[in-house]
Design a protein that fits this description.
single chain, 421 residues, mainly alpha
């Protein structure tokens, strides 16, 4: 299947060894500025709508379900305001990253830049940093891989645990959704057995290496997650207790817990440059970015606030754990799990674009496909074994923070610094 998708689909410029920039710039020095970024595949790239769908899919994941608890830790007023501020900062960093990549790709005559490229070429602008530019690339790629594969680990746990809850509480599930029963029957199988069951399905999914062909699945996943979120909103809004006596601001000692969960929720910066690189018309990516992140930030604030108001001090780590044990709301877990299943491929794509091309470049064309698929299988198996206990996102949060807030700012700073040799 992978061969049909990628090798017969024309040149795949996501692989640096196949990029035309290795041989020559894509534009002459006198070419108009507006044509500098028409670089990847024209008709073979992702459309405006496909890119928007991928951006939404890359940001709406497991972190969204933990935002009601995050708002509880920050307070009913301070929490939403903090989410708004973090959304603005995240969008600014994403836009800064894209602008730096545009400037440096035009300056270096490259058709597109990866995260590592942006840091390496940016550091070459400063004399005392230029000698360490290669290490800058390696450090960023390392953190990016830790972040993206960390997301994949959490997704593996989320997928197996939610399906496990539905399967093993089937005998106690009723059609009465007015009985707020959330007790879970003692499980009879280990979660790792469910992970083993899903392993071949995830391996098959990551064999899809072209974002254009992943877009229909992302659309279906977005629809399934949208339906599940509508049901969650409905239950919360119809069960709001009156009067509302919740603290407007949480305790200072709990605010770092809010910050960690909220940072984890804004998980889409890792897919920004890959999506922009594969877009038919990259000049429209800024519109996609502002539109998509506006939707995401609004969703984060509304679900976090409404979920906290609906369940109050009883809100749990994932809002799905507060839903009643009836078939309608058990379906919410299944629908959201399907969305997370598709999201795995999108987050995995970022690490694959970093790790696979250098390995493929070292082998001949005869073994390229075998090496490519073998690395994908190995990475999926790795994420199934290196899962965090209990499915907590904490292990990935430090690298998420360093990538989302630190890297775009540093890239912008060194890129704007005058060259001093």
């Amino acid at each position: 299947m992978a061969s049909d998708i990628n090798y017969q689909d024309g040149p795949d410029f996501s692989r640096r060894d196949e990029s035309p920039a290795e041989d020559e710039p894509i534009h002459s020095p006198g070419s108009p500025r507006q044509t500098e970024y028409e670089r990847i595949g024209g008709r073979t790239g992702s459309s405006f709508l496909q890119t928007l769908i991928h951006l939404l899919k890359g940001n709406i994941g497991t972190g969204l379900l933990g935002l009601p608890l995050a708002v509880k830790n920050a307070g009913l007023v301070l929490g939403p305001l903090s989410l708004l501020a973090m959304g603005i900062v995240a969008v600014h960093c994403m836009n800064l990253l894209v602008r730096c990549a545009h400037h440096l790709s035009a300056k270096m005559g490259k058709p597109f830049l990866s995260y590592g490229d942006a840091v390496e070429y940016g550091m070459e602008n400063v004399s005392w940093l230029s000698r360490h530019s290669l290490w800058g690339r390696r450090v960023v790629n390392m953190f990016l891989n830790i972040t993206q594969l960390g997301f994949c680990c959490v997704y593996f746990v989320f997928l197996s645990d939610n399906v496990k809850q539905v399967v093993e509480t089937a005998n106690g599930t009723t059609g009465n959704c007015h009985n707020n029963q959330t007790a879970v029957i003692v499980p009879s199988y280990d979660s790792r057995l469910y992970m083993l069951f899903f392993l071949p399905f995830i391996i098959v999914l990551v064999f899809i290496r072209n974002l254009k062909y992943l877009a229909p699945l992302s659309l279906v996943a977005n629809i399934s997650m949208c339906v599940s979120l509508v049901l969650i909103y409905y239950y919360c809004l119809t069960n709001i207790p009156y009067p509302i006596n919740l603290p407007l601001a949480g305790r200072g000692v709990d605010y770092p817990l809010f910050f960690g969960t909220a940072i984890f929720a804004f998980e889409g910066i890792g897919v920004v440059l890959p999506l922009e690189n594969k877009m038919q018309n990259p000049r429209n990516f800024t519109t996609v970015l502002y539109l998509g992140m506006g939707i995401v930030t609004t969703l984060y604030i509304s679900l976090g606030t409404i979920g906290y108001i609906g369940f109050g001090e009883h809100i749990r780590g994932s809002i799905t754990l507060n839903l009643p044990l009836c078939w309608l709301y058990q379906a919410v877990k299944l629908l959201y799990s399907f969305g997370i299943y598709i999201t795995y491929a999108l987050q995995f794509y970022v690490s694959a674009e970093i790790l696979i091309p250098p390995a493929v470049a070292r082998c001949g064309p005869r073994w390229a496909l075998m090496v490519d698929l073998s690395i994908r299988v190995a990475l999926v198996v790795l994420t199934s074994f290196l899962h965090p206990r209990g499915g907590q996102p904490a292990p990935t949060q430090p690298s998420c923070f360093s990538l989302k807030m630190f890297k775009p700012s540093v890239s912008s700073t060194v890129e704007r610094t005058p060259v001093r040799r």
